[in-house]
Amino acid sequence: MKNSIMNNNTPKIEHTNLAEKVYRRIIDAVLEGTFSAGERLVCNDIAKHFGVSRTPVREALVRLEKQGFIHSVPRSGTYVNSFTPEELKEIYEIREVLEGVAARMAAISPDPELLKKMRQAG
Question: Which H or E run contains 29?
């Protein structure tokens, strides 16, 4: 007797990248002003707030620092950088363009790897 679940074409459950989700939540909080310029970001507090372990938070913070949204001060902590209204406007405009290009590329020539990354990005 075969297992009926193995006979149908049920889509596989997607593995979501937790660090990516944390990254997006933090960047939105920075851009919306929930995290103020100069505010110290504490990994443990963020992890507890989002209900995740420290690992995805650390990964997200490293990525945010590389992109210039936050900065680390040795033996002091990680802090939110300040942005002018013009810089914030540019960031939003760039995000809109990139998201539109990614969607267009996926629609024109659906690359399985690109689609997977877009699904993970949420």
Answer: helix 18-32
Strand segments, DSSP code E, in 31-117 are: 40-41, 70-73, 77-80
Please, are residues 67 and 31 in contact by the beta-carbon 8 Å criterion?
no
The Cβ of residue 93 has, within 10 Å, a number of other Cβ atoms equal to 10
What's the CA angle centered on 90, arms 87 and 95, to 5 degrees?
130
pLDDT, tens digit, for every residue of 36-74?
Answer: 999 999 999 999 999 999 999 999 999 999 988 899 999
Can you tell me which residue has the tokens 């002003």?
A: 33
Bridge partners for 71 per DSSP:
79
Each residue of 13-27: pLDDT tens digit? 444 588 888 998 998
